[in-house]
């Protein structure tokens, strides 16, 4: 039986246009796509269209560990929805809900079976929180 999807969310104090740009442009992705200050993202590539591929390289600043996070887009509806399939077959859906000068982001993703669900949820939420901090600071 498949595990229940994990859901995380955040409300960003920024209009949808800014939120969409900082979420999807590689020059912004490299500034926020990591869970803690001892990590960084040296490279991001993004072909934002159905069938398009994306890849983000995340590395520990001390050089001890790194990995590529990537997949293929299934659906892209500007300012509303991004869904994709990760390299291991798991599905991810990101919904953007505009409300004036705020934008709510809800991410739903299939858990992997290597790490506890709470650890996965915490890591993804930390990245989303980092995104919120970066975008609101621009």
From TrEMBL:
Transmembrane segments: none annotated. Residues 14-135 form the Activator of Hsp90 ATPase homologue 1/2-like C-terminal domain. It comes from the Bacteria. SUPFAM superfamilies: Bet v1-like. InterPro entries: ASHA1/2-like_C (IPR013538), START-like_dom_sf (IPR023393). Belongs to the AHA1 family. This is SRPBCC family protein. It comes from Dyadobacter subterraneus. The lineage of its organism: Bacteria, Pseudomonadati, Bacteroidota, Cytophagia, Cytophagales.
């Amino acid at each position: 039986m498949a595990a229940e999807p994990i859901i995380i969310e955040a409300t960003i104090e920024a209009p949808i246009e800014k939120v969409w740009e900082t979420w999807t442009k590689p020059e912004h992705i490299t500034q926020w796509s990591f869970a803690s200050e001892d990590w960084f993202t040296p490279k991001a590539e993004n072909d934002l269209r159905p069938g398009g591929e994306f890849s983000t390289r995340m590395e520990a600043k001390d050089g001890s560990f790194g990995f590529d996070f990537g997949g293929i887009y299934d659906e892209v509806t500007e300012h509303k929805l991004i869904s994709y399939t990760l390299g291991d077959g798991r599905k991810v859906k990101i919904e953007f809900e505009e409300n004036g000068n705020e934008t709510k982001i809800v991410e739903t993703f299939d858990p992997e079976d290597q790490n506890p669900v709470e650890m996965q949820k915490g890591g993804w939420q930390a990245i989303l929180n980092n995104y919120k901090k970066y975008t609101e600071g621009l």
